[in-house]
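Okay, can you check this protein?
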Amino acid sequence: AGPLMRQENKCQQRRGRQIQLVFTMQGMGIWFNSLTLMFLLWVTGQTSAEKYEPTALLAIWRITYLIGAGVLSAVLVTRYIYLEESQVWAQDKKQREEQEQL
């Protein structure tokens, strides 16, 4: 029972770290999005309320969404290619498939 408990505790610690990383990455995404917006506003000269150009602002939000879509696509592709399913999920899937065949 001792080694099993240690292994279970290790899994719980790893899961906690992974959850912490997920929330950290959400904050990093928001931060990088803000930096991107500020950079694009500066590059296009949209730094004063008197000088806003509607076409430049339209381009800025489109570029921002394009960058976000590119990052999201890269994450999805790499997860699909490299991420292995957990044993628990694979066993659950197998059980569901067996129940459907009955």
About this structure: The chain has three helices and no strands. The mean pLDDT is 85. The radius of gyration is 23 Å. Residues 44 and 56 are 7 Å apart (CA to CA).
